[in-house]
Amino acid sequence: MSSSQSDNPDDRSAAISSKKKIIYDFGANNGDDIPYYLKKADLVVAIEANPALCRQIEERFATAIREGRLRVENCVLTAEGDGADVDFYLHKRRNVLGQFPQPDKSAIGDYTRISLPSRSVMQMLCEHGDPYYIKIDVEHYDEVILKELFRNGVRPPFLSAESSSILVFALLAGMGEYSAFKLVEGATVAKKYKNHSISVDGKRELYSFPSNSAGPFGEDIPGEWMNADDLFDVLAKKKMGWRDIHATNLVTPDPAPRAGKSRQMRRHPLGWLSAKLRSEKT
Length: 282
Description:
Elements: H1 9-17, E1 22-26, H2 34-40, E2 43-48, H3 51-60, H4 62-66, E3 70-74, E4 76-78, E5 85-91, E6 111-120, H5 121-128, E7 133-136, H6 142-151, E8 158-162, H7 166-175, E9 180-185, H8 189-192, E10 196-200, E11 203-207, H9 228-238, E12 243-248, H10 258-267, H11 269-281
Parallel strand pairs: 1-2, 1-7, 2-3, 4-6, 7-8
Antiparallel strand pairs: 5-6, 8-12, 9-12, 10-11
């Protein structure tokens, strides 16, 4: 698997546009993200451990599977492994909370333990191809998957993971060598991104994201890309939780902290506006 990249974002964008776009949905759940991903990629690879949810996906997207645009992998995604069966914990009431790591003793009564085949993340990528975008939403295991990707030199153009711990931020901003970030709030996806404008094959169309979906990625997320310092400030205020950190290596954000720019604007609004108008004319 190739991980070499040009230092020029424009060169990287041109190279990516000519390649087959593959989106990996790590933690596909019931497949609510798949319709959007099918619009954005040549191939979607959905990985889900829960057998009942995989059957739902296969029934729901039978046409896309038959056409070769969707592949469904029913397995436990692991950092390392040879395909052996492993323990997985299904939540008794909320299917989105199924997890590979053993739950805490205080909560284990809410889970049913089953045995499922495992596949390593690198096995998946080697089998299906280089990723254009990877969505990671595997309960209490995101940082382990991230670390394994980066350890093997895998840094897709777009990547997202739930901000369940500060380690996820540290990996993306440090070990991941990403410099541009956005946040998507999980609780407001259906409301904020209803009839939302997305890019499909160079054209714009409206798309409504359902509740519990991951929402848009890349340039479909409105707003400016943040640098690592600004992202850290935002997370410090919002705290960790149900929000996804999106990262890209195709954009170079303004390195100046937003807080400093805001203070400068408040102190010198006329001077800032004049400078902005001059820059736009040039």
